[in-house]
Amino acid sequence: SSGRAVTQAGPTPAFDAVVHAPLRLRVCAFLDAVSSAEFSALRDVLEVADSVVSKHLKVLTDAGYVKLEKPTGRGRVRTWVRLTDEGRAAYRGHVAELRSITADASRD
Prior knowledge:
By secondary structure, the chain is an alpha+beta fold. The chain has five helices and five strands. It has helices spanning 17-20, 22-32, 39-46, 50-62, 85-107; strands spanning 6-7, 10-11, 37-38, 66-69, 80-83. The protein has a three-stranded antiparallel β-sheet with strand order 3-5-4. A two-stranded antiparallel ribbon has the order 1-2. A hairpin with a 2-residue loop joins strand 1 (6-7) and strand 2 (10-11). The longest helix is centred in the last third of the chain and has 23 residues, at 85-107. The N and C termini lie far apart (35 Å).
């Protein structure tokens, strides 16, 4: 665990270099709004190639921030992606930190 906690007051602001990369930030933002999403939906929203999505999902998976699931069944196997609790906390903490940074800058 990264030591980040989500309190009732909101996420603990913490800059997260894994989340910060623009495409990974967009992946996390999209996944934060849903319980899970199909890989192809992510690709379509990001408007990038499968290989680009895969590369960023690997970084997020290695960090423990996303989980990939391939339910077995009939027909084409689809890959579903979801934020883990740690990933959701990291994303929300990162956004809170960015808000804090921009709020501080606007007061200067």
